[in-house]
Amino acid sequence: MRKTTFIVPALVIALVIVLSSVFVVDEREKALVLQFGQIKSVKEEPGLAFKIPFIQEVVKYDDRILSLDTETIEVTPSDDRRLVVDAFARYRIADVVQFRQAVGVGGVRTAEDRLSGILNAQIREVLGADQVTSDVILSADRRQFSNRIRDNARSSALSLGLDVVDVRLKQTNLPSQNLEATFARMRAEREREAADEIARGNEAAQRVRALADRTVVETQSEADRDANVIRGEADAERNSIFAEAYGADPEFFAFYRSLQAYETALEGSNSSLVMTPDSEFFEYFKNQGTPGAN
Q1: pTM above the 0.70 mark?
Q2: Domain-embedded: residue 4
Q3: 47 — alpha (psi -120 to 50), left (phi > 0) or beta?
Q4: For residue 283, which of 63, 92, 180, 268 sits 20 to 30 Å off, Cα-Cα?
């Protein structure tokens, strides 16, 4: 019984020592074995590993690609139009030893703060370079700027043990006050273009209308000319017929013209004439029935 009393605690203590000396490295992790803050070994392969219990400690870091969203900043391109820009980056811990030496116990949070400062500095440097205008930055062809920021940030982040895999610009907009001014300028420009189009349309309509009026006048003039020619030819033919009739029988022609005069003078239902009985207008009425009368 006394042996059992000593064996059980000894076994428990041995089990605790064994368990505290063994640790597992996941395939998504890298581990550092530290002794009094000093790096003693690096475990980058997945599996079981050992350490000295109670003296050494294990610090693990994520070996996957991590993401970082930068804060929104303002940049001023070469055309002095301020832009609001933010970006996101993909990075991984490439050298875990250098990473630990650079950030110490701060870990990933401290590393991301420093990496964010590097990215913002590179964004300002690349987008504020000469011959880089806001129109180019706001266009679809801005991938070149992201690649340049990534390459520059990668060189600076090597001192942190980080590898910057990719950088993308998320937001590249004008500030709110500049955005309203830009919209107003765009509206004014579109209104000016609309006014120009309306003016050109009115000018074209006036030309078409003037051409149509001239065509109408020319057509009417030609029609009036043709009508006058036809009317003159008809009058000439009529006068010729009258002349032939007058030459053939002057008395009958005079009688016929008198009848036309009566018809013209007595048109309408309430026409009335006042004249003397011996008027020459009623010559044929007075001489009606008289043989040989003119």
Answers
A1: no
A2: no
A3: left
A4: 268
Measured CA to CA, the distance from residue 242 to residue 58 in angstroms comes to: 138
Task: Answer whether residue 235 is part of any domain.
Answer: yes
Q: Which alpha helices (DSSP H) does 249-286 contain, by range?
A: 250-265, 283-286
* Residue 207 structural domain: 184-220
Identify which of 77, 73, 33 has the alpha carbon closest to the alpha carbon of residue 57.
33
- Which helix H or strand E contains 60, and what residues bound it? strand 56-62
Last residue of a domain, one of 220, 247, 280: 220
d(C-alpha 254, C-alpha 257), whole Å: 5
51: helix, coil or strand? coil
Shared-domain flag, residues 196 and 101? no
pLDDT digits (tens, 9 = 90+) for 127-182: 888 778 877 777 777 788 889 999 999 999 999 999 999 999 887 777 766 666 66
Residue 129: both structure tokens together: 């370079």
Give the strand order in the sheet containing 38-43.
38-43, 29-35, 56-62
Residue 6 lies in a domain: no
Note whether 206 and 125 are same-domain residues: no
